[in-house]
Write a structure and sequence with these properties.
By secondary structure, the protein is of the alpha/beta class. The protein has helices at residues 17-28, 41-51, 67-77, 90-102, 120-136, 138-145, 188-195, 218-228, 282-293, 310-318, 336-342, 355-365, and strands at 8-13, 33-38, 55-59, 82-87, 106-110, 179-184, 206-211, 232-235, 246-249, 255-260, 266-271, 297-301, 322-326, 348-350.
Length: 367
């Protein structure tokens, strides 16, 4: 009996001849992918109408055009999920975040040099993202949730932060006793730009965040989140003191872990240990947070493919902590939260626009 393989039609709008060649090699390696290329915007819009792709990849480094404006047009006029392709530069990072906040499905980074060959793992990642995007029904669910957006596209002035120097003789040193551990992947940047600014500045807990994005982007992502948030948002640095009402973003290429100091305080401990595909990994971060804070841990797992963090959510719940998972209603990809729910790791299941309310209630519930 012959089985019919469901095909995913991909249109790659790509200005780089090198990247078109690499994409061709990657797509031809998978019989479930049908693909076509466009070298520029005019050809791209023409092929969008005639080819009707299931997934679009778009080069954010096309010369001579306002690519963010083009992203807006594609997202507003076409139902297919959009994956943006960007250079590993500061400008590339900021354009990538803008596109993701507008509703792009995910991002792919392109190599810096023309002679760089995409690795087997990168090719596998591209195929996985394309196929998940093709199955996601992404645009219909995203448009349904646009009414829940709480922020404009322009960042406010970062709030002034009071810096306090702690030492062993400081009688006012306050130990952090509660923690919120948040894991998120595909579709995360837009969701986080909606919910992080809504967190109260006096939440009363330290927040640890792992977002699966390219390793070189986590610093820029932290800066961008900070410009919207009443809380201090920063890329985690090894050895720094964990403080209340600060959001520590996992640094790309490292695991976000914690350690207890001789003074009883908690410190960031970045490691390079391998664990599944991700560095940082949600599972590693959550289990490290649980080891320090125990039942005073709030675990939150949101949109993303795979199961990173699902088992850790089970452990947090069994230890007496509070766990919150995003519901299928709003999840761009109902993979990570679904796995947590199915394994019994989610005490509370709510759409993304209720996550903040549940986090605040959970932190207050912790004694």
């Amino acid at each position: 009996m012959d089985f019919i393989v469901e095909k995913t039609k991909v249109l790659a709008i790509e200005g780089s001849a090198y990247m078109r060649l690499e994409f061709k090699k990657i797509f031809e390696s998978d019989p479930s992918i049908l693909f076509s290329f466009a070298k520029g915007i005019e050809e791209g819009f023409s092929k969008l109408k005639e080819y009707k792709p299931d997934v679009i990849t778009f080069d954010l480094n096309l010369s001579g055009v306002n690519t963010i404006s083009i992203v807006k047009t594609i997202l507003s006029e076409h139902k297919a999920p959009l994956i943006v392709v960007s250079m590993l530069t500061m400008e590339g990072a900021m354009h990538t975040f803008e596109a993701l906040e507008l509703g792009a499905f995910d991002c792919i980074t392109k190599p810096m040099g023309a002679l760089t060959i995409l690795t087997k793992n990168v090719g596998k990642e591209i195929l996985e993202k394309v196929k998940v995007a093709g199955r996601s029904g992404h645009m219909s669910s995203l448009r349904k949730n646009l009414s829940y957006t709480t922020q404009t596209s322009l960042p406010k002035t970062p709030p002034k932060k009071t810096i306090q120097i702690y030492n062993d003789d400081n009688p006012y040193k306050k130990k952090v006793t509660k923690a919120v551990a948040i894991g998120i992947s595909t579709g995360g940047p837009k969701v986080l730009m909606d919910i992080i600014p809504a967190l109260p500045k006096n939440l009363g807990a330290a927040i640890f965040l792992v977002q699966h994005i390219p390793a070189h982007f986590t610093k820029s992502f932290s800066v961008r989140l900070n410009s919207f948030s009443p809380l201090n948002v920063k890329e985690a640095e090894s050895g720094e003191l964990v403080e209340e009402d600060t959001i520590y973003v996992g640094k790309g290429g490292y695991q976000l872990c914690l350690k207890r100091g001789y003074d009883g305080n908690t410190y960031i401990n970045l490691t390079d240990e391998k664990f599944n595909f991700f560095k940082p990994s949600v599972t590693v971060m959550m289990e490290s947070v649980l080891q320090i804070y125990g039942k005073k841990t709030v675990g939150v797992l949101m949109t993303g493919m795979g199961d990173d963090g699902a088992d850790a959510m089970v452990k947090i719940r069994k230890a007496g902590g509070i766990t919150i998972a995003e519901s299928q209603e709003t999840a761009i990809v109902f993979g990570m939260p679904k796995e947590a729910i199915q394994r019994g790791g989610a005490e509370i299941v709510v759409p993304s626009y209720k996550i903040i309310e549940e986090i605040v209630k959970a932190v207050k519930r912790i004694l």
